[in-house]
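tool_call: predict_structure(chain=1)
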Amino acid sequence: MSSLTGHWSFDPFLVVAAAVVAAHETGLARLDRRSTPAHRRARRRRSLLFDAGVACLLLAVASPLDSWAGDYLYLHMIEHILIAFYAPLLIVAGAPWIPLVFSLPVGARRRLGRALLLGRRSVAVRRLLAFVTNPWTAVVAFNGVMVFWHLPRPFDLAQENRAVHVWLMHGSFVLAGVLFWLQIVPSHPFRPRASLLWQGGAVVGTNVVMFVLAMAMSIFSTGSWYAVYAHAPVSLSPFADQQIGAAILWVCGDFWAVPALVAVIRRAVEEDGGLSNVMERVVGRVPAASGDPARG
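tool_result:
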């Protein structure tokens, strides 16, 4: 029992998470005062998903899992999956954006709006935001971040340097994960910009990248990649530990990818009026609507 109660740790993410949750609740309270009961209930239901996402993130970085991950790579893989896939998914599904904006005082909101829309740098800011939120940018960035931080040198550096581990590795996982899921999951007031066919391809393609990474760490390797795990935990060699971690990365990919793909297919069926119409679009018999940069 002490192993569950005695290994909780303080992570700097706790401060950020607490500030974001407090701001979110402040924004919700302000919106509730100007909303109908139906809108309040819908907003509160979404907020539960956001809270679950933050809780998932804190479970990964502050619970005994984080402590054990220092000894076992396979537990570190579980931590990465929670931080990069599941916490961002729940945060995006929780749609915290409008409540976070309304957490600011009225004057600050107006100044922010004027700066984004009318300020001298507003064009450059909007172009930067358009690039960052572009579907291709988001998916390439997410897969690039996942691969980069699992390469031996960056991984070892993150394990040896707390600031790199917390702010660069974990921070990039969360940011890239949020951008990735914004392309797949509607998150009021944002909706995915790419076609449903593209979204399905992004889910499958990302799962393939995780599969190839897992294969490289296990089947295509003959030894442990990471010097920080060169020690030998009880009854488990470093390479066996790495193989189990690769298997977790591989298998857990199905846990997020399959439901996401099913959700995309269901939306496609609803949009096109039937599975046969979806299949015709996939094989190119029905032209995709024009005007979408990710369609075609």
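agent: The mean pLDDT is 87. Proceeding to next step.
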